[in-house]
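Q: What would this chain look like folded?
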Amino acid sequence: MTRRLDVSLAQLEITPLAPTENGERMLEVATTEAQAGAKLIVLPELCNTGYVEPLAPGQGFSPGIASHADYAERLYAAAATPDGPLIQALSTLANRFRCHLVTGLALRSDSRPGVLYNASLLLGPDNLRTCYAKVHLWHNEKLYFTPGSLLPITDISVGRLGMQICYDIRFPEITRCLALGGAELITSVWASFRHDDDPIEDEGLFRHRAFTRAQENGVFFLSCNRAGSQGEMRFMGHSLVARPDGRILAALDHEREGTLRTTLDLDEVAAYRMSTGILNDRRPDLYRALVEPEPLP
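A: My prediction, written as structure tokens:
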């Protein structure tokens, strides 16, 4: 029996530090896609708060923000709580439509006051909940977020799903570990931007990255980026889905808000891996010495 999965990647504009407005938009879009038949809906990185400020080292804050401490307080206030109304509403939606939802969130720790995670949250039917906290924090993210230490993989009935966030893609070990753990599809949520006045240096940037991670591991790679602008920066969109052999299944070739809809055939994962031997032909006995830590002097 063919294992098919209808997916939607929502390339949203996000309003900085406006969790109520952003939450309403997330629920609106997710409801529309669920009603259209999507069984997996993916939303970008830090959907509830927008990306952290300053967006890049050396830049300033948005008007009205006085300092890093001021911004940190506002970010914490805007972040979701594990038992808060936003996550409860998204979970209710997933239960109602018997679908799965992956969204990027600024998320408070449920046990350590003052600790925030840049998280990717998977919600599904029967109150399924899996949280991945971003392991590799980019530049100023380190000022506000605590890095995660787990790489969860979740069975979503038609296949096994792993998650990563933005900068994680530059570390191939993450995708490989997820594939070795059984993941057949991997969601990558982004808030990737460029200076508003600068052209895109490489129109195929997101295609190259998704192609590589998909083909290396024989996984479907779902790359969902933000749209819109924040301060002097413009988010680059170009959300896409790569097949296990790296070929692009579907893509949005623009920076505007929009939704990408497509269907995955999860049987392609085993077919590609069997035809190439991509996982069986590994030689971890040789690699092990290269990743062992150097002894301290």
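Residues 19-35 form the longest helix (17 residues).
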